[in-house]
Amino acid sequence: MINRSNLLILSLALFCISCAGYRFRHHENPFSDYDIQSISIPMFVNESSLANVSAPLTREFTQVLSAYPKLKIYPGESRRGDAMLIGIVRSKPRLSELNKTTSTVFTDSQLKSSIGNRQEFYVPRTTTYQLTLQIVLIKDPTFEEMKLISNPLSQQIQKHPKIVFNQTITLDGSYDRVVKETENSDDEGLTNSTKSKANFERSVQELAKTGALKFKEVILNVF
To answer: How do residues 83-101 score in pLDDT, each as one tens digit?
Structure first.
């Protein structure tokens, strides 16, 4: 005869076994409870004011999901996946609104020779920017459903028979503009645009990695 004490121990043991089984399934495929064994990941849509941000984000998110051994990933708009991960990058419409100068350098001292006889002024040195990324996991979407998701109002959709999740995360980036002196006012100028562009591209790479980590936290916390 099982007494109350033994029954309690047995119940706790069964509960622990159940939790361990759930964690194991989650570790192998966080979407298995939704009958999703494979996901297609097309190139993220870039609706922001910045160029060349889609590819790094798509790559980092693909790497995060590829780490789950029981989850098959199809790159591109493949229809073979049980679900599709859609990413839409957005920002303020104008670069002047998007890019914010957070530090400057004054054109005196060594930079004086770069501006000739012009009045000294402040040159932007550090620029920050903010993007939003809407991430939608939807099962076997139709063309009409994908068109619906591309609408900014779709960020408000939380209940849909095919949508597993619909989350928007904020991504903050910053980069330094390379400012250096030149021999005279006829040289290329104060800001080295080539090196500044390289700094911007590195900041996008870091932003993409940060976004992918945030996405992984969403998976761990929600599923």
So the answer is: 999 999 999 988 777 777 6
